[in-house]
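TA notes, week 10

Several of you asked for a full example with nothing omitted. So below is the full record: structure tokens for the whole chain, then the designed sequence directly under it. When grading your own attempts, check the secondary structure regions first.
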């Protein structure tokens, strides 16, 4: 019986040394080792073809593509390893994180354990959806809804689909690779946007940023608050 290989598309544009096929292959091996998986185990399901996967690790044919990365992220999530698409493809965003298998048994929580529980919930969200993203809130720009130290997550939209998120609180990824949460508004300049802090008394120097070119926007559909 001949098994037809899946075709993977959505090639990754190399913008720097962190996004080359070789760099992507190194990070791919990293998260596979974190998940304690051999290549054969990594590709035990229909989601991943072992020959194609091997090519990604050794940087053949342009290396790991976007939709292949999404499948890999879902696979290692089943082993308790959280990895963002931005890190795997471009070396940016949060690095991979391993969830202890007995994390749900922890009763006396401190901040680190609280963080583990949040990441575990994000892992479930990532396993159910493709093209997900998440960030930790780093400023007071989105008070009173989102506080510093909260985590938010959503499913990314690209291109013209971003316009459907106008007037919504979103996770923004700029073309420079920066990530933050802001209210998304239209701009007078074509294919650019205005990013707004919703907190009227924010300490941020630039509460409104005009004419921003963005790579993606994700409606915030998940909000995680630390208990500690």
């Amino acid at each position: 019986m001949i098994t037809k290989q899946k075709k993977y598309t959505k090639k990754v544009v190399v913008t720097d040394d962190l996004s080359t096929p070789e760099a992507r292959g190194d990070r791919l091996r990293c998260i596979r080792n974190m998940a304690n998986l051999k290549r054969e185990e990594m590709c035990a399901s229909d989601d991943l073809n072992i020959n194609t996967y091997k090519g990604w690790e050794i940087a053949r044919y342009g290396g790991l593509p976007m939709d292949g990365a999404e499948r890999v992220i879902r696979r290692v999530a089943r082993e308790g390893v959280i990895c963002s698409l931005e890190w795997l493809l471009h070396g940016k965003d949060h690095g991979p994180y391993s969830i202890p298998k007995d994390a749900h048994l922890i009763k006396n929580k401190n901040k680190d354990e609280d963080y583990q529980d949040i990441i575990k919930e994000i892992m479930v969200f990532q396993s159910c959806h493709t093209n997900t993203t998440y960030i930790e809130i780093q400023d007071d720009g989105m008070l009173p809804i989102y506080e510093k130290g909260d985590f938010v997550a959503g499913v990314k939209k690209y291109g013209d689909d971003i316009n459907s998120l106008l007037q919504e609180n979103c996770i923004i990824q700029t073309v420079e690779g920066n990530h933050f949460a802001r209210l998304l508004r239209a701009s007078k300049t074509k294919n650019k946007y205005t990013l707004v802090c919703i907190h009227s008394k924010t300490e941020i120097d630039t509460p409104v940023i005009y004419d921003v070119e963005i790579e993606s926007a994700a409606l915030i559909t998940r909000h995680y608050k630390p208990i500690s």
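The chain has two domains: 17-98, 132-224. Use that as a sanity check on your answer.
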